[in-house]
Design a protein that fits this description.
With 145 residues, the chain is mainly beta. The protein is built from one helix and twelve strands; from the N terminus they run βββαβββββββββ. It has a single domain, classed as Neuraminidase (6 Propeller). The chain is 4% helix and 44% strand. A four-stranded antiparallel sheet has the order 1-2-3-4, with no helix packed on it.
Length: 145
Amino acid sequence: MVEEGVQGFSFDENNKRLLIWREHDLGFLDLAEYFQSKESLSFAGLQWVHLKDKAIEGAFWVNDTAQIVFFNHNEVWITDTKPSPTILSGPDAIHDVVPIKGRSSVLYIDKIATLFYLDRENAEPHVVFVVSKIPYWDYALWKNQ
């Protein structure tokens, strides 16, 4: 069962995967079998990633649920949902993506694999393309001339 403190969730319709977050935890669950069998829902397969020093304000599925992008009021991170043969992968490997302007929000659009945010230093809008496990860093939407 999911304990108290759930701050938000996201459901991926195509993969039937549920993403849940609490202040210092990300949880994800594959619900494909539940939708096929229509048996009672069980949270026994819920996997948690515990983030002791990162307070989560929001999260998004990325790359067809292979990864999760999550953020707080000044930073964005990414983690894998499954271990892979690459170095530093799996749910225990948290990677910095980009610092953001304090108390601003971020938006991720999965169809174009793009994260929109305000730059920490000058509060200008920027994007990061999150493609096949490698974030392409920091393209400014516009530059002052």
